[in-house]
Write a structure and sequence with these properties.
By secondary structure, this protein is of the alpha+beta class. 26% of the residues lie in helices and 30% in strands. It contains 12 helices and 19 strands. The longest helix has 18 residues, at 181-198. The chain is globular. Bound molecules: acetyl coenzyme *A (ACO). Acetyl coenzyme *A binds next to β4, α3 and β5. Residues 201-324 form the Eis-like acetyltransferase domain. Residues 327-427 form the Enhanced intracellular survival protein domain.
Length: 430
């Protein structure tokens, strides 16, 4: 009997929740211990049918088993999400998270089995895409995922930035006020809804996100210190931006303040709000460094500063990975920079989205349908995912040998249609 034969991959039942969390913690190299608080919290949102475990019936003794049931040696979970396509249409997404395989059971195909089961269910349910944030780059491409958005973190050397030290608030009647957590819970979700519907690559947030990020819900694994919250209102009194940040308490020997402000999150629905919040953060007395947190790679920040070199990049990385489950609906959900036609041959090892598709695209939307016409561009479904939100270039992928032009110039046509003037961005992790 091979090891695989003894391992059953299936959704958990409710009484198996504690053991599943133990396996999850062990897989992420955290203490496997499950507190009552963690059990209560996770039980409040875990959907057993979409929470997979791998059960090893051949394991004689395991500290991963507290209930006396069959030990769980791998975890995987998905939940419903909306992802904003280019142009602002939200598409139903199968968000994947909590993927672990216990160290003793790695590289036996357990992730592959869990992924196959979950993606098949998502496809059957009618989800247009699957999404995840990849712990490591090499894991998910084989399952048809492509890196679709990037993230950047900057650290700003405030004295070098060249901002006017007399600045005391935004121009043109806008204002910034410090608010408390209760205000954030009141105004934040609506502001975020406006934001994410206008931001390709952004995903929906749950109430739980706001509870965790305003200190209502305290988790064992996330230390909590009450942050500062600042809201930007326009001259008309509209809430247009919100930031959560913290500061350390650091003074140099020569009695100079050397404090660092660390941004937990910042969202804005107008450029005025975004510019004003960055200027505010970089103008607080005593703050000599600002760490921006995860931002869009084309964030306004560096160029809000008179000397943009005062902001240096500390992290630049892929972020949201997308797996297209329904090519027709994905391509029809978005708008396009130009008008044109493209015939794509999409390869998909797992067969979920393979086929030849004709796209008739324009600024108002598109028609897409299977076709027998001659293909102009051949590409893997993972590369189509990287192109879909507009962040990747077909010409660049062709140069890398990943996209093949069946008609000369087809990659340029694809770029003219698919690329966007601002880059997609997902501010959230999940
Ligand atoms: C969305 C999220 O939750 S991201 C978090 C992902 N989890 C982690 O990083 C926690 C630590 N790592 C793990 O738990 C496991 O190593 C996992 C989940 C990444 C992989 O699980 P496994 O069961 O070992 O993967 P599986 O055996 O199905 O591997 C399939 C293929 O992917 C490759 N692979 C798997 N993980 C990795 C990796 N981290 N780096 C490179 N290749 C990998 C395997 O070598 C195998 O290749 P092959 O098809 O050429 O033989």
């Amino acid at each position: 009997m091979t090891p695989r034969d003894t391992i059953d991959v299936r959704p958990i039942t409710e009484p198996e929740t504690r053991d599943w969390i133990r396996a999850l913690n062990a897989g992420f190299l955290r203490s496997p211990e499950v507190s009552e608080r963690e059990l209560a919290d996770r039980s409040s949102y875990l959907v057993p049918e979409r929470t997979l475990g791998a059960f090893d019936g051949d394991l004689p003794h395991s500290r991963l088993r507290s209930s006396g049931g069959t030990p769980i040696v791998a975890t995987f979970r998905s939940f419903p999400q909306e992802l904003t396509a280019v142009g602002g249409t939200p598409v139903p997404a199968n968000a994947i998270t909590n993927v672990t395989v216990t160290a003793t059971h790695r590289r036996r195909g357990l992730l592959t089995r869990m992924m196959a089961a979950d993606l098949a269910a998502a496809k059957a349910r009618g989800d247009v895409v699957a999404t995840l944030i990849a712990a490591e780059y090499p894991i998910y491409g084989r399952y048809g995922f492509g890196p679709a958005t990037c993230t950047t973190q900057w650290t700003v050397d405030v004295p070098r930035a060249g901002l006017d030290p007399r600045w005391s608030g935004p121009p043109a009647g806008g204002r910034i006020d410090l608010v408390d957590a209760e205000d954030v819970r009141r105004i934040g979700p609506e502001l975020h809804e406006r934001f994410r519907r206008a931001q390709p690559g952004a995903v929906s947030r749950t109430d739980r996100w706001w509870q965790i990020n305003t200190g209502v819900l305290r988790l064992d694994r996330v230390p909590w210190t009450e942050p500062f919250y600042a809201v930007y209102r326009s001259a008309a009194g509209e809430v247009e931006g919100l930031v959560s940040y913290e500061s350390d308490d650091n003074w140099g020997d020569a009695k100079q303040p050397l404090n660092t402000a660390e941004v937990n999150w910042l969202i804005a629905v107008t450029p005025e709000a975004e510019r004003a919040l960055w200027q505010y953060l970089c103008s607080i007395d005593w703050i000599t460094r600002v760490k921006t947190g995860w931002r869009a790679p084309d964030d306004l920040l560096p160029h809000v500063l008179p000397d943009p070199r005062a902001a240096h990049i500390t992290t630049q990385s892929d972020w949201l990975w997308v797996r297209i489950l329904d090519v027709v609906r994905a391509l029809e959900a978005r708008t396009y920079a130009g008008t044109g036609t493209l015939v794509l041959e999409v390869a998909d090892r797992d067969g979920l989205s393979a086929g030849r598709y004709r796209l008739d695209a324009g600024p108002a939307g598109a028609d897409c349908a299977p076709t027998t016409q001659r293909a102009e561009l051949t590409l893997d479904v993972s590369d189509l995912a990287a192109l879909w939100l507009g962040d990747e270039s077909a010409v660049r992928l062709a140069a890398l040998g990943r996209v093949r032009e069946e008609r000369e110039g087809a990659a340029s046509v694809a770029d003219a249609l698919l690329r966007t003037s601002r880059r997609p961005w997902c501010p959230d992790t999940f």
